[in-house]
Amino acid sequence: MKIGVLALQGDFIEHVHALRRVGAEAREVRLPDQLEALDGLIIPGGESTTIGKLASDFELLEPLRAFGRQKAIWGTCAGAIFLAKDVRREQPLLELMDITVARNAFGRQVNSFEVDLNIPALGAVDPRGTPYHAIFIRAPLIESVQKDAEILATLPDGRIVAARQGCWLATVFHPELTLDDRFHQYFVEMSRSTRNL
Amino acid sequence: METQVGTFAVKKGLAQMLKGGVIMDVVTADHARIAEDAGAVAVMALERVPADIRAYGGVARMSDPGLIEEIMSAVSIPVMAKVRIGHFVEAQILEALGVDYVDESEVLTPADEEHHINKHDFKIPFVCGCRNLGEALRRIGEGAAMIRTKGEAGTGDVVEAVRHARAVLGEIRRLQNMPDEELMSYAKNIGAPYEIVKETKELGRLPVVNFAAGGIATPADAAMMMQLGVDGVFVGSGIFKSGDPARRAAAIVKATTHFNDPAILAEVSRNLGEPMVGRQVTDIPEAELIAQRGW
Asked: Is the pTM of this model over 0.90?
């Protein structure tokens, strides 16, 4: 499987390393022609305003939307914001997923946190079902999911932190900052099943 | 497990989110909005850019909390602010304000000529300057979650930024070839904690994110620092002391992303107006050099 990582800004190298650990081929994507022949794409953490502006300036928005209509896309944190249809403010977005996202929903950096989550969907790649240790950095929150978007993970108080809609995956935390590669395995499998459709 | 805040993973993690980006010095809320619109990943809120600190002279201190808060409410991206080297109370104040990153900076007048702040004591992360690997690893030992090479702030002359980045990255390359039995005496010689020297050798890079700073004034400067191997750049006086700050800021952001693509670098370097005038580092008397502050 050949997975691209949008490398305009942010922690794209961490995603590249995680993809290689799970046996996928990884390629950095900065320009539209680099999307060719990929089976899936990850949009990393970073600053969503910066990534959106660069994607818009280098004419990536339409090619990324077209890619997402056929292939799997996963956004982490800023990437989740970028995938959303609604973030309640003006900034360039892919507007693919039927989710409403609030930026910096937990406050500033001093409120960034780590917590263990129970994520049943990861049973698909590891049946042991051990808790998932998630890192939230100035994280956004998925306020609501609409249409056929499903909730994959919530905090203990019920707030939504991961969602999936068909071949699109959004996590507001950062699996790429840990050595627990279950989400990367899960996404590689998503990309494989989308390709084989 | 309970929710944990202020861990080293979240401190270092925010710096990881800034990689491949440009952090810009701003002195007003309007500047901050220009920086955000140009694609800055964060802004450094301060009363005077380093070029003006040089020109103004006197004691340079932490900025007014009112100004910092105004900038914090003007933008959605992270806001950093500077404290004097060793001034832990200025840092406590910035933590109380909820600033996203503290820069314990040689650009301000040092408050302690022997000791830096014990950064482990804080829930907010710190970035510190360095000129070589020993200085970088001492700061990480004190709890810095991000490093920037110092360069010579407020000059618009990139020569010191290059010198310091080459020093740090070159020393890491040499460290990688060193047999393990030599690490203890190497750690002693560069004045760095042994465990972090060992970790750096194993990683083949600093254990935290490493930006370049001090003298970057053009898209080509930013791209050169990226090609040398840093994770991102700080631009201080270079943007708002130039003829067309918005345009230059956007161009430096694009150059930092496409640092390996000379055709794009040529395109974004076109028609940017006057760069900051600048001051050649070799013309500055030694006593006025900022980078030598830090121990």
From this structure: yes
Residue B202 per-residue DSSP state: H
Contacts of A45 in chain B (CB under 8 A): 16-17
Tens of pLDDT along chain B (295 residues) come to: 689 999 999 999 999 999 999 999 999 999 999 999 999 999 999 999 999 998 888 999 999 999 999 999 999 999 999 999 999 999 999 999 999 999 999 999 999 999 999 999 999 999 999 999 999 999 999 999 999 999 999 999 999 999 999 999 999 999 999 999 999 999 999 999 999 999 999 999 999 999 999 999 999 999 999 999 999 999 989 999 999 999 999 999 999 999 999 999 999 999 999 999 899 999 999 989 999 999 9
| CATH, domain range A2-193 | 3.40.50.880
Give A177's contacts in chain B (Cβ within 8 Å).
9, 13, 16
SS (H, E, C) chain A: CEEEEECCCCCHHHHHHHHHHCCCEEEEECCHHHHCCCCEEEECCCCHHHHHHHHHHCCCHHHHHHHHCCCEEEEECHHHHHHEEECCCCCCCCCCEEEEEECCCCCCHHHCEEEEECCHHHHHCCCCCCCEEEEECCCCEEEEECCCCEEEEECCCCCEEEEEECCEEEECCCHHHCCCCHHHHHHHHHHHHHHCC
Which of B10, B42, B124 shows the shortest C-beta gap to A137? B10
ipTM tops 0.95: yes
Q: Cβ contact (<8 Å) for B20 and A14?
A: no
Smallest CA–CA separation between A1 and chain B, in Å? 26
Residues in chain A: 197
Tokens found for residue B144:
């810095």
Mutation target for B interface from A103, A112, A155: give the one with most B CBs within 10 A.
A112
Return the biggest CA–CA distance within chain A. Answer: 45
- Asked if residues A132 and A120 have their Cβ atoms less than 8 Å apart, the reply is no
* Site from A50, A93, A177 to mutate, B interface, most B CB atoms within 10 angstroms: A50
Helix (H, G, I), strand (E, B) or coil at B222: helix
Positive or negative CA dihedral for A142, A57, B46, B8?
Answer: positive
Q: Do B258 and A30 touch (CB under 8 A)?
A: yes
Q: Dump the DSSP string for B9-67.
A: HHHHHHHHHHTT-EEEEESSHHHHHHHHHHT-SEEEE-SS-HHHHHHH-S---PPPHHH
Query: Given an 8 Å threshold on Cβ–Cβ distance, is A136 in contact with B4?
Result: no
